[in-house]
Every structure is written in C-alpha cells, then in structure tokens.
C-alpha cells in the first residue's frame, strides 16, 4: 500500500494554494487534509480553518504559500504539533528569518524562494559561470512577475545573487542606480524587478564582458511547476529530523 503524505496547505484560497490543491488531486502519494486561510476556499473537500487555533485535522506536513504575517502562528502550531513545514512564502524580514532558523532546531523546515526544478538548476549554472567568468564580466539579474506580487526583488532573484556571491565573495547588491552618477563598480551585482500583467515568473542572469554576452534564463509558464515542487518537498520532508532543508537536499536524494 502506498505511503500517503497528508498535507495542511496554508494560503489554500490563494492562486498558489489552488495550484497545490489541483496538483495534489492528480497524485496518489499526497492528500490535502486541511487548509488555512483568512478566506474560505471554493468547493473544498477538506477541513478549512481561518487560523491554526481552529484546526482539528491531523496531517504530516504543512505547506505554506501564504503571507509573512502568518509565519508566527504557523511556526507556533508546527512546533507544538511537531509538524514539518515547507515554506514557499517569500518577503520575510531579517527577524522572521531568525524565527525560521530557531524553529528548525525543533522541527524539519524546507525553505526555498523558488520550488521549480529548472530554477534551481540555473542557480547551479549561474554559480559555475561565475567561477569561470571571474574577471572581466559584469553580472546583472532581471526578474519579472505579475502585478499582484508584493515583494521585490523576488526571493528567486536573491537566491541567484546569493549563489553568485558564494563565488564572487566581495560582491555588492545594487537595486537602483538612478540616485547616483558614477561608473559601475566591478563588484556590483545589479538586481532589477519588473511587475506587470500576469507574468508567472521570468528570471535572467546576464554576464556582460568585452565583445561577448552570456545569458542564462528561466521562464515559468504556469504556477504548476511550483506546486509540484512543493508537493515533492512535502513528501521528502515527512520523516526527516529537525533541521533546515532546501532544494539541493531534495535533488541529491533522487
């Protein structure tokens, strides 16, 4: 008999929540046991609660596609119930990131700014390219998302920049150049955000050198790629020991 991972989806009434629910409906190894959201989902066949204090369903893993404001109550519930959490939400403050790190000492936490396999592959490619193109190349990152996205730059753009900085250790992130007039510093990694329409997610890393330009890009055509990645992370995390996990851990387990 197949081992089924029962999931609580936080943000179940949002677009990503709906994508996770839809992706789960086509799989035999996962089941949506409950959803938490300030708004009720449409035609849900699982337990729904406005907050964690009203939740009664039992589940194996929490998958979070909500809002940073939910973090505190979610971590409190997860630690009390000893439930692993897959955190897919972005835009956390430094204080909230510390809360996540502290919680990972008590429960397994999987956190990634992007759940797409393709994105995590280009992050590795960007890191390798940075090592090869160490001199004479300027690095710029451009990310594009829909006009409802709240945080900028995206968590994925920062993941890419952080990966590059592992190689280019003296790098400095520059988000806006209009406020000063000076020549581009070689240490800069430019990070630029575009918001418009219903763009799902576009990321491009530009390595601009003398007489040649290298570009690495990824285009998400639907939210399904992120939902599938989150479900895979939930299955992976189910029986893990407390600690912090990410997509590299999931990929290396394959």
SSE layout and pairing:
Elements: E1 5-10, H1 15-25, E2 30-36, E3 47-49, E4 61-64, H2 71-81, E5 85-87, H3 94-103, E6 108-111, H4 117-132, E7 138-145, H5 155-167, E8 172-174, E9 188-195, E10 201-208, E11 213-220, H6 224-237, E12 243-245, H7 247-252
Parallel strand pairs: 1-2, 1-4, 2-3, 4-5, 5-6, 6-12, 7-9, 8-9
Antiparallel strand pairs: 7-10, 10-11
Describe it for me?
The chain is an alpha/beta fold and 254 residues long. It has seven helices and twelve strands. It has helices spanning 15-25, 71-81, 94-103, 117-132, 155-167, 224-237, 247-252; strands at 5-10, 30-36, 47-49, 61-64, 85-87, 108-111, 138-145, 172-174, 188-195, 201-208, 213-220, 243-245. The strands form two sheets. A seven-stranded parallel sheet has the order 3-2-1-4-5-6-12, with helices on both faces. Strands 8-9-7-10-11 form a five-stranded mixed sheet, with helices on one face. Helix 4 runs parallel beside helix 5. 36% of the residues are buried.
């Amino acid at each position: 008999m197949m081992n089924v991972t029962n999931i609580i989806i936080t943000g179940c009434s949002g677009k990503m929540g709906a994508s996770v629910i839809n992706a789960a409906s086509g799989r035999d190894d996962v089941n949506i046991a409950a959803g938490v959201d300030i708004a009720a989902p449409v035609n849900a066949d699982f337990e729904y609660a406005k907050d964690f204090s009203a939740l009664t369903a039992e589940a194996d893993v929490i998958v979070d596609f909500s809002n940073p404001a939910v973090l505190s109550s979610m971590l409190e519930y997860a630690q009390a119930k000893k439930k692993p959490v897959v955190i897919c939400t972005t835009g956390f403050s430094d204080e909230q990131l510390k809360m996540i790190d502290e919680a990972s000492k008590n429960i397994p936490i999987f956190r990634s700014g992007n759940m797409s396999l393709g994105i995590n592959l280009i992050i590795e490619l960007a890191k390798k390219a940075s090592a090869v193109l160490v001199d004479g190349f300027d690095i710029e990152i451009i990310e594009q998302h829909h006009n409802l996205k709240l945080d900028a730059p995206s968590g994925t753009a920062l993941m890419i920049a952080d990966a590059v900085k592992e190689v280019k250790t003296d790098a400095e992130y520059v988000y806006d150049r209009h406020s000063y007039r000076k020549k581009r510093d070689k240490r800069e990694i430019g990070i630029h955000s575009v918001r418009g329409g219903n763009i799902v997610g576009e990321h491009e890393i530009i390595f601009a050198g003398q007489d040649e330009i290298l570009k690495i890009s990824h285009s998400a055509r639907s939210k399904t790629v992120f939902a599938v990645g989150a479900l895979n992370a939930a299955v992976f995390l189910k029986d893990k020991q407390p600690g912090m996990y990410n997509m590299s851990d999931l990929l290396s387990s394959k």
